[in-house]
Write a structure and sequence with these properties.
This protein is mostly beta strands. It has strands spanning 3-8, 17-22, 25-30, 34-40, 45-53, 66-69. The termini are close together. The relative contact order is 0.32.
């Protein structure tokens, strides 16, 4: 079976890019407010945070952590 975790967040003013971290490791970047992590396995828990980058490459603090588990 193929598992995925879809993430959505609120846009940050001035953000040009978002970085998505899984368990503290950068796993995805996105230009919009949604991303799908397809590198997950079943019956496993994952925790994510998101940060925003502006056009100059300045990175915000990471968001509050959100955790989920695959079936």
């Amino acid at each position: 079976a193929t598992y995925k975790v879809t993430l959505n967040w609120t846009a940050s003013a001035g953000a040009a890019l978002y970085r998505i971290y899984r368990d503290g490791t950068l796993v995805l970047t996105a230009t919009g407010v949604t991303a799908t992590d397809t590198m997950v396995v079943g019956q496993t828990g994952y925790c994510y945070t998101v940060s925003a980058l502006d056009a100059s490459g300045n990175e915000s603090a990471q968001s509050t952590q959100v955790c989920t588990a695959t079936p």
